[in-house]
Amino acid sequence: MKQEPAAQKSPRASPPSSLPLSEDDDPQALWIFGYGSLVWRPDFAYSDSRVGFVRGYSRRFWQGDTFHRGSDKMPGRVVTLLEDREGCTWGVAYQVQGEQVSEALKYLNVREAVLGGYDTKEVTFYPQDTPDQPLKALAYVATPQNPGYLGPAPEEAIATQILACRGFSGHNLEYLLRLADFMQLCGPQAQDEHLAAIVDAVGTMLPCFCPTEQALALV
């Protein structure tokens, strides 16, 4: 997971020299894996989409956001992928074809790289319905080398930060809750203990921050 003044300045992401192809090896087709705001709002044209997961990575709210879900004074918290041998991250893969490829990459370079601080990485995506037919996909990952990287923090501290931040794409709390909703739709096999712990922490804190009516207005 867009319009605030001081955008975070980050180098443009460079797509890999060999882009991941679709399952039919069409050189004009590409799969793009989303695991944050892309799961509910890709905002680019695509030909197909599939829910599924990537192995070897865990999702973490370790990237700071001074544009989409926060500001320079109060950076929000958004997700990135952490290499984890035992990890599994659920999301959505979108297939783009023909002219969609260049348009999607152009759009995502601004949204994820220039404004978000993310770089590109090739991952292996396993569709929920056909996990025995994995796909190569392009993912946007924020590494510790980018200036917006915040790194680990207790889930309670992350929850406090999320409750306090808003950017031009909306409140940071909306980002958290939409991601949690997506995980519920994936079914009981989709687990994310880090995400669940932050949602639980928010649930204990929210009444202290504002009445229920105001809380609902945030999202």
Automatic annotation (TrEMBL):
GO terms for molecular function: gamma-glutamylcyclotransferase activity; glutathione specific gamma-glutamylcyclotransferase activity. Keywords: Lyase. Its EC number is 4.3.2.7. InterPro entries: ChaC, GGCT-like, GGCT-like_sf. Pfam families: ChaC. Coiled coil: none annotated. One of its GO terms (cellular component) is Golgi apparatus. GO terms for biological process: apoptotic process; glutathione catabolic process; nervous system development; Notch signaling pathway; response to unfolded protein. Residues 1-23 are annotated as: Disordered. It catalyses: glutathione = L-cysteinylglycine + 5-oxo-L-proline. Catalyzes the cleavage of glutathione into 5-oxo-L-proline and a Cys-Gly dipeptide. Acts specifically on glutathione, but not on other gamma-glutamyl peptides. Belongs to the gamma-glutamylcyclotransferase family. ChaC subfamily. This is Gamma-glutamylcyclotransferase. The gene is CHAC1.
